[in-house]
Amino acid sequence: MQTRTSRSIEVDFFRGIVLIVIVLDHIPGGVLQHLMLHAYAICDSAEVFVCLGGYASAAAYDAVLTKNGQRSAQNRFYKRGWEIYRAYLLTALLTLLSGAILQFLHLNRPMVDLTDWSSFSSAPIGEAINIATLRRQPYLSSVLPMYVLFAIAVPFIVPLARRSAVSALIPSLATWALAIPLANFFAIDDVSDWSFNPFAWQLMFVIGILCRVQPVSDRFQLSKAGRWLTAIAIAAVLAFAIVKLFILTQPLPGHLKQNLSIDRVINFLAIAWVAAVLVRTGHIANLAHRMPAVITVGRTGLVCFVGGTLISLIVDTATPRNIHGLSHGLAAFAGDLVAIIAVLLLARTWNEWRGPAQTRAAVHGADCR
User: Fold this and answer.
1) Per the UniProt record, which residue ranges are transmembrane (predicted)?
2) Looking at the predicted structure, is the pLDDT value of residue 357 above 60?
3) Cβ neighbours of residue 115 closer than 8 Å, sequence gap 6 or more
């Protein structure tokens, strides 16, 4: 099977949308979060984010491999692991500083609790060690530690996936099935320590890699079996939406997301298949071309993720809480719009500051954001 070498505008578009959604989802008083994926599905933007990360990583690995060889490709991802670890420390630091400032100013007490500042201030040295060793991950930084592990694993997973989908998928499924015992063994089972069990979530990352190196052909999608799968996927998406809207009226236990429960996987796969059909028909590309600013966000992923943590904290704090009814709704909606604009401006500013060098790296797939 021929490996794709060009950068996918659809993937950049999806990643841009997801990064914006992540910011909106972490504004507790926001309005638009009620229209996001988690409101209509068992899964949420996290599955999409991790899967697209696997896709982008496979594309970057193949690009560096083709241009500079295997050793350069391996070194690129070992270096990437270190870059993500530094981004994690920066995100954790920004989160804690935000909590400290909010507590000092007596603002937004619920957000102070979310930032883990109280725990850190009571035992700063011990908590700093826990953060540095990934034992504790303050608030929005919690998704990044598993990305460190995934980046290091890319040079091993991509060649395996290129050899055959089965050889990569079976070990991944086995690890996912044993995710909870493995987490217990490595003492990362507490949700307060690891919000995302990496032994479970690696399945989403591997699925993303397989989507890049072993893509489903257009011919299969158009075949009778493919059309049946499309019909089943649409029915599953609708069924999960009905369940989420009318049956599961209370928040689900956190461990289901932490350990990537099977219903989340099935719901995501159904959504992913429908999205793949829309990509094949050109609908996503047409939409992406009309929203170039979102594509820029997708190509500036790590920066927008780190910056998005501050944006969500600032917007949530600035949203008035002493008003109610329509006025509160309008204020919250305005806050959501400010957050979206801030993310778009951050991506544009960073892209212009980095200049042509970043653009060339993105085109060649050297940047595995």
Assistant:
1) 12-31, 37-64, 85-105, 144-161, 168-187, 199-216, 228-248, 260-279, 291-314, 326-347
2) no
3) 95, 96, 98, 99, 102, 138, 139, 313
